[in-house]
Amino acid sequence: MKYFKYSLLIVTLVIPSLATAALITETWQSTIRTVSNTTAFNVGDVIQWTVTYDDTSTVMHFYLDGSDGVAGTGDDILDSTPVIDCPDGEYCGQYSLFSDAVFGGLENFTAPLLAEFASNGHTVRDAADVNISALFRYTSGEVSMALVRDELNFLIDMSTPVENGWQYLALAYTSSGGAKNWVVLSFESEIVDLHSSVISEPSSVTIFCLVFMGLVARKVRRG
Q1: Is residue 4 part of a domain?
Q2: CA distances from 8 to 12, 76, 203, 206, 211 (A)
Q3: Which UniProt keywords apply (predicted)?
Q4: Can you list the alpha helix ranges (DSSP code H) found in the chain?
Q5: Does the pLDDT at position 20 exceed 90?
């Protein structure tokens, strides 16, 4: 029983200090600044999205469209070389963090646009041969998010003045008459992180302590 108490004390002290906060989900909000080639949205509409990333990552990958020319399907190719890879990558001095990321909530924007395309006889078109989904943090602390996936291009770069247009969501389409075009929604510079949540992942030392605790408890029961 004495060893069991000691192991419980060790785990109690170690877990909070050694558990690694790996997955971060942030909820962001901004306001539409300009609208091009759509009536589904208006200037001043408030938008929200989420992004989930690994806050310890130093690698971001990109994917090549497979033989069917469409990303997100079974024949996509993960490029063997990450876009960025520290400590040897060329961007290491520019960024303090970069990670593959998962974006949520963008269907709130794409769904109305796709409905509008259908009513106008437009079709979406794959405008991206290389597909990425990532979050970067500059050494200055500013954030950049990028999602390039087939017809969708979503970019937030808070290190760049909003006048340069680096905060936008764009959807590529072919009009009913055959012309290639984009719907573009640009965002104001006031992009706010509304909420962050953390999913902690245990470190290897923490796991060892838990296993040790289990073995001691087993020995106590046998005794």
Answers
A1: no
A2: 6, 47, 17, 12, 11
A3: Signal
A4: 2-18, 107-120, 204-222
A5: no
Whether 193 contacts 145, CB under 8 Å: no
What are the C-alpha distances in Å from 139 to residues 51, 90, 113, 189? 20, 14, 36, 19
Three-point CA angle 57, 63, 66, nearest 5°? 160
Is 91 inside a domain boundary?
yes
31-42 pLDDT, tens digit each:
999 999 999 999
Instruction: Count up the domains in the chain and report the number.
Output: 1
Instruction: Supply 127's token pair.
Output: 């405008």
Closest among 207, 18, 209 to 217, alpha carbons compared: 209
Residue 179 lies inside a defined structural domain of this protein: yes
Measure the CA–CA gap between 139 and 127, rounded to whole angstroms.
Answer: 31
